[in-house]
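Input sequence (301 aa), recorded before submission:
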Amino acid sequence: MNLYTERHGLRKPIARKSKISKEVYTLLLNICQIYYKNLTHIFKLQQHCSFVGQDYIEFNRSQFENRMAIKIPNILRDEYGHIAAPQDNDDYDQYSLIDLIEYVAENIKDISEGWNNDRYKNYWYIHCLDTTNVFNDYRNEINELFQESGLLFTLTSEKIIERLVEDTPLSPAIERQVQQIAEYGTRELMKDAIALYKTPNPAARQDSVEKIWDALERLKTNYTIVDKKTSVTKVVNDMSNGQIDFITMYNAEFEALTKIGNSFRIRHHETNKVDITDNRHYDYFFNRCLSLIALAIQYLK
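Predicted structure, token format:
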């Protein structure tokens, strides 16, 4: 629901960011904790009510915490060893919280729960079901908070968190085109490059650019019955429909991207290469290379 100031344009635009603040960390963790009980099928605590002589199960919080200590060792914990929200000046690893969000998403299942007896309420039971309809509720809550806080992340239907990139040519249509690339090596390099590009951790930017440049170099050799130079010429001719002005333009773009790949620290890491220290530059390089490849693969034979 949009509030009054949102509906009437009286609110300043939300600043878009990739840093999870302490306050938003706390809210995201609260959502995860609400859905911990939907992991009971993995973390079962067997209980017995002697008053009515019945067995039942609860969510085993201790077993869950012990498993997370192995699965997500860097997530913030309190003095008692429990997963906790940051307090005061606590340092926290936001990507470990993303791990937790994904873990819950991957393993969440529907449950049926309630008092064994509405009048006497001897114990609260949980019945584990083999369906995952609850994932949609969980995903919506996580994504709503991402959106409201301006975080450039989204929890996908594939149960992974991806970053949202503004002003990029990457689209579902291009991703579908990549899936249809006939040459296996180019297709796999492009899939890896896109996956790394969408990863929230900025440390993956360099790897995404390196992968897409490797894909560009492999694409140049698409026509394997001729040498690389002749293959590039054929790729450009196909893209240009034989029009000289477009041939000139695409030749210049292939040459420019080759020069960038050789001059900057993308595919080569010698000390004389230009370091890339601003992640926005990685985004620019990725998107420029993607634009050429996305067009070229439409013409490959």
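Checked by second reader. Residues 4-155 form one domain.
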